[in-house]
Write a structure and sequence with these properties.
This protein has one domain: 3-Layer(aba) Sandwich (Rossmann fold), CATH 3.40.50. By secondary structure, the chain is α/β, with parallel strands linked by helices. It holds the Pfam family Isochorismatase.
Amino acid sequence: MAKSALLVMDVQRAVVERFGDDPGYLPRLRRAIDAARGAGIPVIYVVVGFRKGYPEVSPRNKAFGAIAARASAGGGFADDRATEVHPDVAPRPGEPIVTKKRVSAFAGSDLDMVLRAAEIDSLVLTGIATSGVVLSTLRQAADLDFGLTVLADGCLDGDAEVHRVLTEKVFPRQADVVTIDEWTKTVTT
């Protein structure tokens, strides 16, 4: 029998502020988190974060190099407030928070070790952005032989069409794609 975990990825203050166009997103995600907890499914949070000065970031890395450059102007992911999980979906004491260094939840983190130690072999993916952390994590998790479910409305992207194409055409090749309501019905019955 599969043992699942719900991954809540990059739903941290700095990211939510950039993608805050959907006022229903955090309440929907909260329902999924509450359903997982109620069903005894572990909730694991993944955030992106770096040391002061961004020593993990190469200037050749187009995405993270730009973030490191902005950090010198006072922004970025090197301070506690930016990396903090949004309070509307905050972890409970004892729920793991994994810090990653790149787009995939597995890149530069101990996520695989946390999952293997808990004997988790199936992941339910949520997060911001669909075309970022969700896509990269899905691809890597599939290559690591995890069973995968994506909560389509538990993901958010800056481009609605990209989100649609990923959740309707790309992700179904490697994952079951369902809504939060569909998923919560299966875990609460």
